[in-house]
Amino acid sequence: MLQISRNVQLDPAEVELSAIRAQGSGGQNVNKVSSAIHLRFDIRASSLPDFYKERLLALSDSRISNDGILVLKAQNYRTQEQNREDALNRLVEIIQNAGKTQKARRATKPTRASQKRRVESKKKAGAKKSLRGKVDY
């Protein structure tokens, strides 16, 4: 079982893993061995709570298709086992990050002193630029 949070677990049977050939340089070995992992996870058909599903589907992530399928490709390591572990860890991380709620931002006013400093610096910059004109003889 993949542990998402204290009381949310994901069954590995819901994740479709397939071995593919890795891209990039690597000599003869990369052409013969299927060491990269292609992970497909159907968000809508999963056993995740609705809260996680809604948050995942609302993400503007290019790895999530319009059908609600999350596709990850893991090819950082040389062995298939390490890439499989990496893909599953990345899946758990994406789900966990989707579950986090950001603290609401409170709008604040700049202080009068900071406004004054800002205007003074703008005046100085303007004065400096006005001296850059052509020199009259």
TrEMBL record:
Q: Which family does it belong to?
A: Belongs to the prokaryotic/mitochondrial release factor family.
Catalysed reactions, as listed in the record: an N-acyl-L-alpha-aminoacyl-tRNA + H2O = an N-acyl-L-amino acid + a tRNA + H(+)
Q: Which organism is it from?
A: Bowmanella pacifica
Drop me one GO molecular function for this one.
translation release factor activity
State what protein this is by name: Peptidyl-tRNA hydrolase ArfB
Which UniProt keywords are given for this protein, alphabetically ordered?
Cytoplasm, Hydrolase, Translation regulation
User: Subunit structure, briefly?
Assistant: Associated with 70S ribosomes and polysomes.
Does Secreted count among this protein's keywords? no
Q: Which PANTHER family match?
A: PEPTIDYL-TRNA HYDROLASE ARFB
Supply one GO BP term: regulation of translation
**Does this entry carry the keyword Hydrolase?**
yes
Superkingdom of origin: Bacteria
The Prokaryotic-type class I peptide chain release factors domain sits at 21-37
